[in-house]
Amino acid sequence: MLDRIGIGWRPELAAGILSHLDRIDVVEVIADDYFRCSRRGLAALRTLGAQVPVVLHGVGMGLASCAPADERRLAGMARVVDAVAPEIWSEHLAFVRGGGLEIGHLAAPPRDPATLAGTAANVERARRVVGMAPLLENVATLVDPPASTYDEGEWIGAFLGATSCDLLLDLHNLHANAVNFGWEASSLLRRLPPHRIAAIHLAGGRRLAGGRVLDDHLHDPPAEVYALLAEVAARATRPLTVILERDGHYPPMAELLSQLDRARAAVTGGRAQQAAAR
Amino acid sequence: MSSAAFEAYLVRLYVDEEARDRFLRDPRSAATAAGLSAAECAALERIDREGLVLAAASFARKRGARPPRRWWRRRWRRD
């Protein structure tokens, strides 16, 4: 099973990443940064892709919405996908704008049939424009989405049933929501169809006053996230692309590489468990 | 029950401090004045208020953390 362990590409980490490609299997690039870049910028991305496999991650489409996705952003993603030819591109089960206003981040939508229908329509539009369906990522939320009729497990299951997308499972988002709303992350994990989990995000966050967890990508992944990773690897039936996300407060590169090693060990342990169970 | 209008109102609650304050003082009146249906207003009356305030603060920090547009890009566009 050719699982891959990699890291999110950030300018602050570029030198460290390029100096340690022997320890990094894959790099995830924020595609929105390249939607309107020059041909030279896309050429630079292709040069990166020639040195290490690149996967693309969108952050601003807002696919999980009753409103149609922004055609300009779909076209932007198509342009970058066409230039880089990644194995996968991904986006979020989130909405990001409405009524002419931008939230400035990812918001969990009301988890109900209307949002599901809008999501399915947006995903199909994205598949047609970009040329391939995205993986969709579960999002963290500090607020229980109002007007929801599905719980989070039902919601993820419903979108998998309604679309051809596979799941980019963010384990810190799962952990954060479980803490914030009083359920068990492992229980939800067991409800997910293993053959639909294609990629994993690892990240960290912090506790706010009052006890809720903020997924801020400024901290190391907690032990719970590595434990969930081992559980996923023990059940997943296809190779996993595992990406460590860090958006600031960067530790030394050696520390980030040790986190990748820890992820690698968790996946290896999970796979060994799966093999022993057969 | 969700709709583009419901989402748009949620966005306003997340980003507009005055609208959020009005809503928290009287959710039903504020949501009704925004043109939402009776069912949508009822759903918003049950909103996770603590989470709403935390989420709005977090979103504001994210918007505030955007780096300013690089000056050399502004100059390039003018040339």
Summarize the structure.
The complex is a heterodimer of chains A (278) and B (79). With 278 residues, chain A is α/β, with parallel strands linked by helices.
Low-confidence stretches of chain A: none
Shape of chain A: globular
Q: What summary fits the major beta sheet of chain B?
A: none
Number of strands of chain B: 0
Number of helices of chain A: 9
Decide which structural class fits the backbone of chain A. Answer: alpha/beta
Beta-strand share of residues of chain A: 15-25%
- Radius of gyration of CA atoms of chain A, rounded to a whole number: 18 Å
- Profile the largest sheet of chain A: 8 strands, parallel, barrel
Give the helix level of chain B as a range of percent: over 70%
Radius of gyration of chain B: 17 Å
- Count the strands of chain A? 12
Describe the structure.
The complex is a heterodimer of chains A (278) and B (79). Chain A is of the alpha/beta class. Helices cover 42% and strands 18% of the residues of chain A. In chain A, strand 7, helix 5 (152-162) and strand 8 form a beta-alpha-beta unit. Chain B has 79 residues and is an all-alpha fold. Chain B has helices spanning 4-15, 17-25, 27-33, 38-45, 49-64, 71-78. Helices cover 76% and strands 0% of the residues of chain B. Chains A and B meet through strand 5, strand 6 and helix 4 of A and helix 1, helix 4 and helix 5 of B.
Features:
A: alpha/beta, 8-stranded parallel barrel, two-stranded antiparallel sheet, 9 helices, B: 79 residues, mainly alpha, 76% helix, globular, disordered C terminus
